[in-house]
Amino acid sequence: MIRTVQTTPYKDQKPGTSGLRKKVPVFQQTNYAENFIQSIFNSLEGFRGETLVIGGDGRYYNREVIQIAIKMAAANGFGRVLVGRGGILSTPAASNVIRKYKAFGGIVLSASHNPGGPTEDFGIKYNIGNGGPAPEKVTDAIYAGTRTIETYKIAEVADINLDTEGSQNVAGMEVVVIDPVTDYAELMEKLFDFPAIRNLIGGGFRIVFDAMSAVTGPYAKEILENRLGAAKGSVLNFIPLPDFGGHHPDPNLVHARALYEEMMGDDAPDFGAASDGDGDRNLIIGKGIFITPSDSLAMLAANASLAPGYSKGLAGIARSMPTSAAADRVAEKLGIGIYETPTGWKFFGNLMDAGLVTICGEESAGTGSNHVREKDGLWAVLLWLNILAVRMESVQDIARQHWTTYGRNYYSRHDYEEVDADAANGLVTALRDQLATLPGKTFGKLKVATADDFSYNDPIDKSVSNNQGIRILFEGGSRVVFRLSGTGTSGATLRVYIERYEPDASRHDTETQAALADLIAVADEIAGIKTRTGRTEPTVIT
Ligand code: VG1
Ligand code: CO
């Protein structure tokens, strides 16, 4: 019943920032998914008889690849597979299941915030036993394996029933279909003061959560409406759809525009939030105020000890390099460590495992803690609600007080999507060539202090990751950062991150793009964005 199938390598199976992401038709090529999954297994040792967790965000092609992955896990000698009912597990829920049931690892099927559907995106990611994304040495080994693969192993059995909870036997391996929500909801109840949040909501505090027709719908319904008493209908777009209703399940001001408009209206609810395709990102909007992800990280860290799960305080904070330095000021005040890592959650795992950090965050709307080893959209929403329930102040008041105490880091990211790959690479190369000569140069009122290509030395496993983004730091704490996306599936996406620090509270009311206007102009002057890409405007501003 176990068949060994001859195959030939595909040359393009290099995992990016978060797993292998390609268009669905690419994944539908003969043996494409099989080659990658076998290469994952080939890179691992000692999993015979162990447990593997499998789940995905429900996007188009999810079920097909789950069937393949289960049959291949059986053929390769895993002892047990835990799979979410319907093939559903949000990314943070998958991380929790891996940890809770002491699995060897997990396969998470998602292309996160990218659109889904027959011609849109799909993805496969491997997570290790700590519940987090495989570190670079593992993804490098997987990629090396895909270049030389000759055979894969699969059990020749009928399709597994993914829709009924309980245990089945697949070619001698146990497959347990689990409820995707229960374990996760239990964990949230342990971390947060649900009675206090229930009181807040019972007292007339109105919330709205947009699940964007993606995976968090069932989680948000259960937690926000059933357990915390939010009015029925508070969770919008709660049915996960294979194509996310034709939208980008990306919780930002562009793709969650309707929510933003509602939150800026006269009769706005008190708190608005959204999550992405696989449930690991969050958007936080208070009545009349959008909280940037970088600010959210800082504000959550500053107030985390108000929630029971963090009442003993934080060990430290980590942020990705392009994320604003707002969290650094909180860490300084709390007297705890702050770590700056490359983009992507895989770099936080070692720091959390070593007990050096409790809370981590990225400017791309990812925040999380050591409760799992992925970023966690609903977790961020619940920590906000817990803080609001204790402080009994509005989001707006909490944000303003925070800026008054710490100063405000005006922050924005400009994305230029699907630009010509050669033009994008040329732009980055030209920037690298300028690094040595930029320091000391002035652009209007701005003087370059330092310029480099970010390198990360992991303090735990001593691995080094080079070329993680070009940083140009100006005197006074402003900076621009340039890097190319590692999650896109067509052309190149240039990301430009712009930040200015403003300590003076009387100047905290400027519109963000206006506050950053001179830096935006200098970024173009130094990098030649318009001339090199032919674009006059970013595709997305967040
Ligand atoms: C983007 C974000 C990064 C995030 C990654 C995965 O990567 O910038 O912060 O960790 O997506 O998020 P890139 O390489 O495109 O900039 V998710 O929610 O797509 O798994
Ligand atoms: Co995501």
Question: Could you please describe the fold and organization of this structure?
Answer:
With 542 residues, the protein is of the alpha/beta class. It is 33% helix and 26% strand. The strands form 6 sheets. The protein has a 7-stranded mixed sheet with strand order 2-6-5-3-4-9-8, with helices on both faces. Helix 2 (32-42) packs across helix 5 (136-148). It is globular, with a radius of gyration of 23 Å. The model has no long low-confidence stretch (mean pLDDT 96). The structure holds alpha-D-glucose-1-phosphate-6-vanadate and cobalt (II) ion. Residues 17-18, 112-113, 276, 280-281, 320, 343-345, 362, 364, 366, 485-487, 495 line the site of alpha-D-glucose-1-phosphate-6-vanadate.
What are the salient characteristics of this protein?
seven-stranded antiparallel beta sheet, globular, alpha/beta, seven-stranded mixed beta sheet, 3 domains, 542 residues, binds alpha-D-glucose-1-phosphate-6-vanadate, TATA-Binding Protein, binds cobalt (II) ion, Alpha-D-Glucose-1,6-Bisphosphate, Chain A, domain 3
Tell me roughly what share of residues is in helical segments: 25-40%
Calculate the terminal CA-CA distance, rounded to whole Å: 52 Å
Uncertain spans = none
Q: CATH superfamily name of the largest domain?
A: Alpha-D-Glucose-1,6-Bisphosphate, subunit A, domain 3
Strand order of the largest sheet: 2-6-5-3-4-9-8
Could you tell me the mean pLDDT?
Answer: 96
CATH level 1 class label of the largest domain = Alpha Beta
Bound molecules: alpha-D-glucose-1-phosphate-6-vanadate, cobalt (II) ion
Please, how many helices?
A: 18
Reported by name, the CATH topology of the largest domain is Alpha-D-Glucose-1,6-Bisphosphate, Chain A, domain 3
Any idea what the shape is? globular
- Computed over alpha carbons, the radius of gyration is 23 Å
Structural class: alpha/beta
Name given to the CATH architecture of the largest domain: 3-Layer(aba) Sandwich
Biggest β-sheet strands, sense, barrel: 7 strands, mixed
Instruction: Give me the count of strands.
Output: 27
Keywords: Isomerase, Magnesium, Metal-binding, Phosphoprotein
Domain Alpha-D-phosphohexomutase alpha/beta/alpha: 13-152, 183-285, 294-406
Protein name: phosphoglucomutase (alpha-D-glucose-1,6-bisphosphate-dependent)
Catalytic activity: alpha-D-glucose 1-phosphate = alpha-D-glucose 6-phosphate
